[in-house]
Write a structure and sequence with these properties.
By secondary structure, this protein is an alpha+beta fold. It has a single domain, classed as Arylsulfatase, C-terminal domain, CATH 3.30.1120. 19% of the residues lie in helices and 36% in strands. The protein has one helix and eight strands; from the N terminus they run ββββββββα. The strands form three sheets. Strands 1-2-3-4 form a four-stranded antiparallel beta sheet, covered by helices on one side. Strands 5-8 form a two-stranded antiparallel ribbon. The radius of gyration is 15 Å and the shape is globular. The chain starts with a strand and ends in a 23-residue tail after the last helix. The C terminus is likely disordered.
């Protein structure tokens, strides 16, 4: 897996959006990259859930998103997330000026979401 693009947008745990090229040739556009409580994780792209009037559903002041892809089990999702975090971190480090620190300073979490994260 390789990160081919990253757009920074810090909001809550969100650090930004990454485009990730899989070894198969599939490119996932708009994967979300997060960090919270010293952990990092990545989620595949999603789409906003819409009500009957085609307006975004909002819960707790946030738009509710539905997955557009899924994994056969949780361990595969965690493995994919860990690989995505590594690819994004490598991409971001390659874009930093020499001697600059890493973004957010958090450690890779092994790909899982922190407890209670959506």
């Amino acid at each position: 897996m390789k990160c081919v693009s990253f757009k920074s947008l810090e909001r809550g745990s969100l650090l930004g959006f990454a485009d990730l090229a899989m070894d198969s040739g599939l490119v996932l556009l708009g994967c979300t990259y997060h960090a919270s409580n010293g952990k990092k994780w990545c989620s595949p792209p999603g789409r906003p859930q819409l009500d009957a009037d085609r307006k975004p559903i909002i819960e707790g002041g946030k738009v509710v998103y539905a997955p557009v892809i899924d994994f056969a089990d949780k361990s595969l999702r965690f493995k994919w997330s860990a690989q995505a975090v590594k690819a994004i971190d490598e991409y971001l480090q390659s874009k930093e000026p020499a001697g600059a620190g890493s973004m957010n300073g958090g450690e890779a979490s092994g790909g899982g979401k922190p407890e209670g994260a959506r």
